[in-house]
Amino acid sequence: RSLAAGTYWMPFTANRRVRQDPASRLIASGRGCYYQTPEGATLFDTLSGLWCTPLGHAHPRIIEALKTQAETLDYCTGFQVTNPVTVRLADRIVAMAPDGLDHVFFTNSGSEAVDTALKIALGYHRLRGEGGRFRMIGRERGYHGVGFGGLSVGGIVPNRRMFAAGMLNGVDHLRHTHAPDTAAFSHGQPAAGADLADDLDRLIALHDASTIAAVIVEPVQGSTGVIVPPVGYLRRLRELCTKHGILLIFDEVITGFGRLGAPFAAQRFDVVPDMITFAKAVTNGVVPMGGVLVRSDLYETFMTGPENTIEFAHGYTYSGHPLAAAVGNAVLDIMEEENVFERVLSLETVLQETVHKLDHAPGVTDVRNIGLAAAIDLEPDPTAPGARGLKLFELGLSQGLLLRCTGDTVSLAPPFLATPQELRAMGETLAGLIETVTH
Ligand code: PMP
């Protein structure tokens, strides 16, 4: 209560109502797929934390790994020395990655991973004598974190506006790919729309390919509401990037480590980028960690070029932190032993059936899903956009669901260890709540 009465933690949330009445939103503990409030209520964790706790809370093997590592080696710099736990995790991540992505650069968050990838792209081109390639191409509605690089390539205009002075030069954005009128209620990937990738041709013609360093996209846009790319869209981007010497970066902070039933979205969509950023699920949200999977030639050029001194090269104090690495290894053990990716694919069908029961519900304008992720758009109240989403969030708390609503969109990304029954129960409760808020 004394914490709740304070104000210092509240700016963390963008939700005004939460700021006014924080006491009822405290989460006291978490076990498996559920949170408990101080009052003893239980909430199903419909978004796996913030897309980051696919194996649920307080997994005993993760707790054990953390304790053991804390007693063995609690910190070690990644400059000039390293440690076996971090090396092992890097090797395992490379083994899971698409062929060719054979180096891991560890960071502590998704935002840092994105900024690192953008720096690698710029450094690589410059050190190969192509310093004229300075432009980055993002995508409308893309979310790439809160660093200046990630904000610049991000496609959420209000997020960027206030920080114009710090934005990268020459960034442009591919047009949004989702057309609700044709792709509404998409079951998995929309079949049509690969030609939307030709928007990259427009930007290449506009800016000249020789000025473009990289294209960065989330394979499935997560934070802005599970926007699934049309079949062939990512492949077409790959072709255009290859043709014009532009690097392709997949931001897999949400999709990495199983959310789509494959280690990475790159494998689900069978398209290999030049770099993959990851974070969140790699440590099941328990300790911060992110990273970039990168081709060795890119990495070597970036790190060992004449303009980089080994003492002051790019890197973070906590890059490859042994505690995070120990947790990461435990996460991969669990994922391997419990065949988690297969489990996600079978749960995908259950989630799909569950959410698409709402296709024709009054007040629902679109329902999308892929892997263990889905989003439902509610028709906004014309006089108060966002109010229905907020109401849904509040009602969810009273009905045992912790929901993530951005505006009038609710996103779902349940834990991989949820049961089909739990997913169906979540869907039924949600359907009732949606009926209430749209009437
Ligand atoms: N990229 C993507 C695709 C994300 O979803 C996020 C976080 N939601 C980030 C980057 C930023 O990650 P972090 O919050 O760990 O900095």
Automatic annotation (TrEMBL):
This is Aspartate aminotransferase family protein. Its cofactor is pyridoxal 5'-phosphate. The keyword Transferase applies. It comes from the Bacteria. Gene3D superfamilies: Aspartate Aminotransferase, domain 1, Type I PLP-dependent aspartate aminotransferase-like (Major domain). Keywords: Aminotransferase, Pyridoxal phosphate, Transferase. It comes from Asaia spathodeae. The lineage of its organism: Bacteria, Pseudomonadati, Pseudomonadota, Alphaproteobacteria, Acetobacterales. It holds the Pfam family Aminotran_3. InterPro entries: Aminotrans_3, Aminotrans_3_PPA_site, PyrdxlP-dep_Trfase, PyrdxlP-dep_Trfase_major, PyrdxlP-dep_Trfase_small. Belongs to the class-III pyridoxal-phosphate-dependent aminotransferase family. GO terms for molecular function: transaminase activity. The keyword Secreted does not apply. PANTHER family: ADENOSYLMETHIONINE-8-AMINO-7-OXONONANOATE AMINOTRANSFERASE, BETA-ALANINE--PYRUVATE AMINOTRANSFERASE.
